[in-house]
Amino acid sequence: MVDTDAKNVISGPKVYLNAMPEDESEFEKVRHQIVQQLEDAMMDGTHDTYKLQQIMRRTIGSWVSRQLHRKPMIVPVVADIAHDVIDGTPSGR
Prior knowledge:
Layout: E1 2-3, E2 8-9, H1 28-43, H2 49-68, H3 81-85
Antiparallel strand pairs: 1-2
């Protein structure tokens, strides 16, 4: 969950695995990198949750490829509390 107005990650990222033998704790190593990439993008003016999802997908995808030598399907979800939760405007304005 992000707040694009405050330009920071509020919670997460949460990683859910399906059909992968790795333990979810393996992904602790990449969580900081995901948060940093999202915050950097928001500081650069990105408010579009679709673009933030793509950053998240690329970050975790390249990490999984390098570290685990796998090519999983990644479905990122970014909720913007500044808009999606508070006033109900659609994401990706």
